[in-house]
Amino acid sequence: MDSGRTDAVLPGVPMSEFDVAPDGQRVAFAALDAEGNSHVWVATLDRRVPPKQLTSSVARQLGFGSEEIFTS
Asked: Could you tell me which of 32, 45, 52, 61 has the fewest CB atoms within 10 Å of its CB?
């Protein structure tokens, strides 16, 4: 993030919103399913670990707290 470089971290993933962790290492995002519902996922920005779905329920807002991801 500090480099100013742009790079598609998750190309082809339709997102409704996202938030980068304070440490700059992870991103939480709401990805849209086939019906247009958004579900919360987390991914590392270095792409070493595949994205992991955190919720199966529909998420409207998301963000990082100091150490945890919150949704509503």
From this structure: 52
Element of type H or E holding 15: strand 15-20
Give residue 66's pLDDT.
53
Q: Domain total for the chain?
A: 1
Say how far apart CA 68 and CA 23 lie, in whole Å: 12
Running along the chain, 72 residues long, what does each successive block of 10 average in pLDDT? 65 80 86 81 88 76 62 52
Helix (H, G, I), strand (E, B) or coil at 57: coil
In a domain, 31, yes or no: yes
Mention every residue, 6+ apart, whose C-beta is less than 8 A from residue 63. Answer: 19, 28, 69, 70
Is 47 contained in some domain? yes
What pLDDT is stored for residue 68 in this prediction? 54
